[in-house]
Design goal:
Largest sheet: 4 strands, antiparallel
Structural class: alpha+beta
Helix content: 10-25%
Distance between the termini: 74 Å
Order of helices and strands: EEEEEEEEEEEEEHHH
CATH superfamily of one domain: YVTN repeat-like/Quinoprotein amine dehydrogenase
Mean pLDDT: 79
CATH topology of one domain: Methylamine Dehydrogenase, Chain H
Strand content: 25-35%
Number of strands: 13
Radius of gyration: 29 Å
Length: 234
């Protein structure tokens, strides 16, 4: 990367091995933000220390052929990749998401309008795409309730809280324009079928293993002897 100054002096800044920078813009923090195709990452270059920090794309999005970037009014960085993607980076948290662009490959230029809207141009698709920033913000808040791999949930909270989960998830599906779950679709179209052998106590499904007359012994015996566990509390 080449850095210039008011004196006309230029300095070279190494971005990393195999670097192939394409676009560079200045962010709200005054740093240089680079779409770095060689390392398949977004790079931040500190203007004072010249330190380089990489925000790599997910492994399943390798060779995105990163192109250009822009900042929206909330300081979120949006970028394009000519191999059919556009993406979003929350620069404060480092959370990065990549999406498939409509009509396949070659999303190219991306820009923020004066009223804060974000558009990108697709060369191969021959269209101008507008990114729904409100949905993007909703997805960000939704994902804050998703635990990272390796963590175990103790209780649901937020959108998944049991007190209003049914109503909340229905609203989420409507906002994302998703179809209802298969079981919900089935329950709306098919009448409830009575159970063949309902439990006389709870009404749930009962599996009959054997029937025998009163006073008789069942022929079926347990497959393993019962194990008695004794606990010494002395």
């Amino acid at each position: 990367m080449l850095k210039g100054s008011a004196t006309g002096k230029s300095d070279l800044i190494a971005l990393g091995p195999g670097a192939a920078p394409h676009g560079v813009i200045v962010g709200p923090d005054g740093a240089a933000w680079v779409t770095e195709g060689g390392q398949n990452a977004i790079a931040r270059v500190d203007p004072a220390t010249r330190a380089v920090k990489l925000f790599p794309l997910p492994k399943e999005r390798r060779n995105a052929n990163l192109n250009t970037a822009t900042f929206d009014r909330q300081g979120v960085l949006w970028f394009t990749g000519q191999n059919g993607i556009y993406g979003r980076l929350y620069t404060k948290t480092g959370a990065l998401a990549v999406f498939d662009a409509p009509r396949g490959t070659r999303p190219y230029g991306i820009a923020t309008t004066l009223d804060g809207q974000v558009f990108f141009a697709s060369l191969a698709g021959n269209y101008l795409g507008q990114i729904d920033l409100e949905i993007g913000e909703f997805i960000r808040r939704f994902l804050t309730h998703v635990l990272p791999k390796g963590f175990h949930r103790i209780r649901h909270y937020g959108l998944f809280a049991s007190s209003n989960r049914t109503e909340t998830m229905e609203a989420v599906r409507k906002l994302l324009n998703l179809a209802p779950p298969v079981d919900a679709q089935t329950s709306q179209t098919d009448p409830a079928q009575p159970l063949a052998n309902p439990c006389p106590c709870c009404g749930g499904r009962m599996i009959i293993i054997e029937t025998f007359e009163a006073g008789c012994q069942p022929r079926r015996q347990p497959t393993a002897p019962l194990v008695t566990i004794r606990i010494d509390t002395s």
